[in-house]
Specification:
The protein is an all-alpha fold and 175 residues long. It has helices at residues 9-28, 31-47, 59-77, 88-96, 100-106, 111-121, 124-135, 140-147, 151-174. It has nine helices and no strands. The N and C termini lie far apart (55 Å).
Length: 175
């Protein structure tokens, strides 16, 4: 499906709603806000459907871009800082990840320690990229399109962030 029409919008919304809701829920850490923001995102998707260009991004990536921007604007309106929210389910997901680096990074720490470590160690841009990488199940390429950044930048940012987090954890353990 390359074009969003009135006829196929409901199908597109059903395909992507839960994923977008989950993404926004992770950002806001508030179910009610996530419901409201998700609904607003799909209203925007519907209203801007004529602007979708399948040559620039997949529908999924385009919807994520709208959701990401809308969520950031939500924080700006509330005068809050964009935060990375991780709960115990996310921590288990990361522990079970095939990426051994993440497994070593998180090991026995609880979610709050990981959140604090990431917020202390990473800048706002890196937090945003790491959140997309871990919790949206987007590929490097999709994250690059979403954030309008080169794929190499995304790849390097993720690897650099993981390296920084590992170093910070080692420093903490050696204290």
């Amino acid at each position: 499906m390359n074009i969003i029409t009135e006829n196929n919008f409901e199908t597109i919304m059903r395909q992507h709603y839960n994923e977008i809701f989950h993404y926004i829920r992770k950002q806001t850490n508030n179910t009610e806000d996530a419901k409201d923001l998700s609904q607003e995102v799909f209203i925007k998707v519907y209203n801007k459907r004529s602007k979708y260009n399948p040559k620039k991004a997949s529908i999924r990536t385009w919807i994520y871009r709208i959701a990401h921007n809308h969520t950031v604007n939500h924080f700006k309106k509330k005068n809050q800082q964009y935060k990375l929210n991780i709960d115990d389910d996310d921590l288990n997901y990361l522990r079970e990840s095939n990426d051994g680096v993440i497994e070593k990074l998180i090991q026995a720490d609880d979610a709050q320690k990981v959140i604090n470590l990431m917020q202390q160690t990473l800048n706002k841009k890196h937090l945003r990229i790491m959140n997309l990488y871990f919790f949206s199940e987007l590929s490097y390429k999709e994250i690059a399109k979403l954030l309008k950044s080169p794929i190499k930048t995304i790849y390097n940012t993720i690897n650099l962030s993981i390296k920084k987090l590992k170093e910070k954890m080692e420093d903490i353990q050696n204290e």
